[in-house]
């Protein structure tokens, strides 16, 4: 089974692309296999190599560089647990999930919804409210499985969202020397669970985590 690339920007999924060839070229020009219409992405920015189940990402002398989990690379193996950043676009690598055949029992109850205790209160929407900087007052709705924030080489964090479980975790991505604080405490490599009114500082930008109905 091959791999799938998911392009994310500002917490929104822009497009998905299935790797079906040994080399996939990514960039802003229409001649690329995966076109990213973003001015921070070079014309021919990066090349994805796929051979015998191994995936590698290679920078093509781009202007803004190619970053793997916050570290600038030239060519490096790429694992599904890692994220690539090209300009302001984040690319996640995953294996496409093939639907399993349903049993007659599962088919009979296909339209039946059973509320689990963990799902109670899942209607509340999570968001980050920016408190400082040019975007002060803006709310970023956390409605994607993974929302990545920050600047490569400075500080990058990801918020992993499990809305049905009311579980949101914050994790710093490797690389960068900028400040990342969670409730005034320096954020390490381990993820932390977010609760309402938690304060996050990313470099010189301060945000507050919130939930609303």
TrEMBL record:
Q: Which residues form the FHA domain?
A: 24-73
Instruction: Show the InterPro entries listed in the entry.
Output: Cell_Proc_Reg/RNA_Proc, FHA_dom, SMAD_FHA_dom_sf
- What would be one Pfam family of this protein? FHA
Xref: SUPFAM superfamilies: SMAD/FHA domain
Q: What PANTHER family does UniProt report for this protein, alphabetically?
A: NUCLEAR INHIBITOR OF PROTEIN PHOSPHATASE-1 (PTHR23308)
Q: What is this protein called?
A: FHA domain-containing protein
């Amino acid at each position: 089974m091959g791999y799938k690339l998911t392009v994310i920007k500002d917490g929104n999924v822009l497009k998905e692309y299935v790797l079906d060839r040994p080399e996939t070229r990514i960039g802003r020009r229409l001649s690329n296999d995966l076109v990213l219409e973003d001015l921070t992405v070079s014309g021919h920015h990066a090349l994805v190599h796929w051979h015998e189940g191994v995936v590698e990402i290679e920078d093509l002398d781009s202007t803004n560089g190619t970053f793997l989990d916050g570290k600038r690379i030239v060519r490096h193996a790429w694992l599904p647990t890692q994220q690539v950043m090209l300009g302001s676009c984040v690319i996640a690598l995953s294996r496409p999930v093939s639907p399993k055949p349903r049993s007659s029992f599962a088919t009979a109850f296909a339209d039946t919804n059973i509320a689990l205790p963990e799902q109670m209160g899942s209607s509340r929407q999570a968001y980050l409210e920016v408190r400082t900087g040019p975007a002060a007052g803006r709310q970023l709705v956390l409605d994607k499985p993974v929302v990545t924030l920050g600047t490569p080489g400075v500080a990058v964090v990801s918020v992993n969202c499990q809305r049905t479980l009311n579980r949101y975790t914050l994790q710093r991505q490797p690389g960068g020397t900028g400040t990342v604080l969670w409730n005034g405490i320096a954020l390490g490599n381990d993820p932390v669970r977010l609760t309402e009114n938690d304060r996050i500082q990313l470099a010189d930008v301060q945000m507050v985590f919130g939930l609303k109905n």
